[in-house]
């Protein structure tokens, strides 16, 4: 369905992305900008879990929702990465690896769907792990301070985003390997 509760949560995630980015354009103290952006990102990211849970629990899954959900995730992550590069909290090379993989795998999935082989590039646990690590790393980098007097969020965010970049490459190689037999069969 185009408008059910899980899909509305996904739409809300997309609509909220400019709010996360817009915080950095407000004339606020940097620490307040960081806190607001972090809280907004976490709340928006939690809707990813909530919409999937509700869709399954309420039996409201739909092909449109299955399409829109990963698009919303990619928009959210890419927007946050661009902000982090702009704020000089993330190396542009790491951001390019993650964003480039998202574009490449999205294109691969579209192509595989066109040739009737979409199952070969279905979401794998490795891709879910990559997304989870990104969703933890990004708020750490957005917060950019010492949390509870113990946790240097920039340090841990940087470590986690590098791990996410490695998982990004690994998952891309995995999906390409899964798709290669189908590609070879169709190209011949």
What's the shape?
Answer: globular
Number of helices: 6
Specify the oligomeric state.
Answer: single chain
- Enumerate the spans where pLDDT stays under 50 for 5 or more consecutive residues: none
The topology string of helices and strands comes to HHHHHEEH
Structural class: mainly alpha
For this structure, the CATH topology is Four Helix Bundle (Hemerythrin (Met), subunit A)
In total, the number of domains comes to 1
CATH class value: Mainly Alpha
What percentage of the residues does DSSP assign to strands (E)? Answer: under 5%
Which strand order spans the largest sheet, edge to edge or round the barrel?
1-2
CATH homologous superfamily label = CDP-alcohol phosphotransferase transmembrane (TM) domain
- Biggest sheet record: 2 strands, antiparallel
Mean pLDDT, as a whole number? 89
Please give the share of residues in helix: over 70%
User: What is the CA-atom radius of gyration, in angstroms?
Assistant: 18 Å
How would you describe this protein?
By secondary structure, the chain is an all-alpha fold. It has one domain: CDP-alcohol phosphotransferase transmembrane (TM) domain (Four Helix Bundle (Hemerythrin (Met), subunit A)), CATH 1.20.120.1760. It has helices at 5-22, 30-57, 63-86, 92-114, 125-143, 153-187; strands at 146-147, 151-152. The radius of gyration is 18 Å and the shape is globular. The mean pLDDT is 89.
